[in-house]
Amino acid sequence: MSEDTPISVTMEKDGEVAVIIVNNPPVNALSWHVRQGLEDHFAAALSDDSVKAIVLRCAGATFIAGADISEFGKPPRGPDFNAVLNSIEAASKPVVAAIHGTALGGGLETALVCHYRIAVPSAKLGVPEVKLGLLPGAGGTQRLPRVVGVEAAATMTSTGDPLPAAKAKELGLVDELAGEDSLAADAIAFARAKIADGPRPTRTRPVFGEVAVIEQLKAANAKRWRGFEAPYANLACVEAATRLPFDEGLAFEREQFMKLMFGSQSAAQRHIFFAERQAAKIDGLPKDTKLRDIKKVGVIGAGTMGGGISMNFLQKGIPVTIVEMAQDALDRGVGVIRKNYDASAAKGRYKPEQVDQMMGLLTPTLGLEALADCDLIIEAVYENMDVKKDIFGKLDTIAKPGAILASNTSYLDIDEIATATSRPGDVLGMHFFSPANVMKLLEVVRGEKTAPDALATAMAIGKKIGKVAVVAGVCDGFIGNRMLKPRQLEAMNLLMEGATPAQVDKVHVEFGMPMGPFQMSDLAGVDIGWHRDPNRIESIRDALCAEGRWGQKKQAGFYDYDEKRTPSESARVTEIIEEFRKKSGVEKREITDQEIIERTLYPMVNEGALILSEGKAQRASDIDVVWIYGYGWPVYRGGPMFWAGLEGTDKIVAALEGHGFEIAPLLKEKAEAKTGF
Ligand code: 3H9
Hints:
- By secondary structure, the chain is an alpha/beta fold.
- The chain has 4 domains: 9-262, 2-enoyl-CoA Hydratase, Chain A, domain 1, CATH 3.90.226.10; 297-474, 3-Layer(aba) Sandwich (Rossmann fold); 499-584, N-(1-d-carboxylethyl)-l-norvaline Dehydrogenase, domain 2, CATH 1.10.1040; 593-673, N-(1-d-carboxylethyl)-l-norvaline Dehydrogenase, domain 2, CATH 1.10.1040.
- The chain has 26 helices and 19 strands.
- The strands form 4 sheets. Strands 12-11-10-13-14-15-16-17 form an 8-stranded mixed β-sheet, with helices on both faces.
- Helix 2 runs parallel beside helix 3 (106-113).
- The longest helix is centred in the last third of the chain and has 21 residues, at 593-613.
- The structure holds (S)-3-Hydroxyhexanoyl-CoA.
- Residues 26-27, 29, 62, 65-70, 81, 102, 104-106, 109, 128-129, 132, 134, 136-138, 140, 274, 277 line the site of (S)-3-Hydroxyhexanoyl-CoA.
- It is found in: Peroxisome.
- It catalyses: a (3S)-3-hydroxyacyl-CoA + NAD(+) = a 3-oxoacyl-CoA + NADH + H(+).
């Protein structure tokens, strides 16, 4: 151990039991110095004849939550993890892992080389590596099926979802449940009781269970895993465990792990892991900024958005007063909330009494005056500046001092809305994405005068209701919708030049998006933002709208739809496009899939660069988070700005220039330096 080695592992003795304690906040990750400490202290405990059994436990909030992800891709330091695990496994004295909080990834792999495991009832055990585009690469895929069987091991590794301690005990992953507050003592007593039994064999235990379950998992998750490499690699390793001797299985696992570790998917998924946590941080704001207390929320508008927004708070036990203009709209809105909760209850997500409880927290009303005692008021009426200003003007006279006044606008100017009040410091945007009770993204829009504590409170409440909140500056469409604009524009231009909606959409779906621009338009409503004058036909979209082709809701849009909303290519749309092409004298030509990528996705990167240099996003990774959680950008491509680095910013600039785009100076800079964002 050198002088600069942090002391993150210590050892105590309780009679014949040595207790090795890991203390590496915040999550006891297996940083190089933890591996070093484990190696040193296990060696010491094993060579001490007075020690007859060893307990491994952790200080702080959790057991070991995995390898230290921040070390990945850096030059190796400290002892090799597998070597440390092998020496624990080979210990001649029984080793007991004492688990609280979460035993995840490398943490569970460490527990798996221990001969016994004891856990508190609130503990969770899992191998979430797949969510980082990886697999448990320290023997997890080989040891787990020997303990819990093929089905549980295949499910745990390929989904990454952790098990509660009680379930883990049922499966034999945990030997005994400790008292919630007496783990340290219970583990010592358990270890003492195992001295006579000695270490329990691990590697020689046979794998049990049916391999057929692996194919069933693949079939059941085909949609969810589309494009991902890691779930399949995890399953291949579990399958290998069923037919290969332990050491060969380990070698296979290693090979698969290295392939994933040095591939672009895991790099992207690790980027998003940190990006999501980084997004919560507000530049220039002290970490200890005092938050405002949010005990009661007001929502204006009981339409789809208002209802969805309200559900987020009700689910967290926060009372909501919901306001509408007319009784029937209010009743309809409340009815939809109830219906949604009942549907979730039918799927087993809630008990009926929980639904009643949540609905009991909802106060429907027709007057804004009822919002006087709310700490946060979110306006979710239709997109019209005058209407919004009128509401905010009224709120100014009704809301209590210090209440946060938020607009759910998706593109309007928050600063202008704030001028309708005498308290612009309390005004900000909280832009939810539809369906608002499901989508994880929340853009928190910081106005010019938004007070720091109002902003910090909106971000914190976002986290509390389970959203990934990202700070955006005031601009047309904020981060997400602003980047959507150039994409939609070019998608339309491509139709004029010879591409079909189906071709453009196919390229996007193959890229990994849940749907393409035209499928999205049909789903959202082709008529959104349309001028509503059927005689004014200046674009393909105007022509579709004039004919009532408003999208899925009309069973006609860029595609034709049957009663089950199954799309098919539309001869009429082809005709409309042809007419427009002729009228504007554009020559039809073959459009390649590559050109579609270059003209619809590269311009998003260009717009992202503008957003960054204008300071409308705090950092490139925030833009990535917006696109992953708000629009379904494939996480294995890391968001548009991360992807730009993979693709090559120089290649992107060259292609955009070739297509006649004006290049954002920041993107040009990155291209010249041949770096990503
Ligand atoms: C692995 O184990 C591979 C092995 O098979 C080995 C193969 C050879 N490393 O999430 P939070 C940081 S792969 C480094 O906000 P929570 C995180 O960035 C790993 N840092 O807390 C944040 O930092 P900051 C498998 C980590 O209470 C802080 O800790 N394991 C790691 O909401 C707090 O995090 C996983 O994938 C890490 N492993 O949730 C588990 N984990 O404060 C990943 C966290 O600077 N971790 N940090 O922003 C988690 O799922 C959650 O962090 C956890 C706590 C549930 C543990």
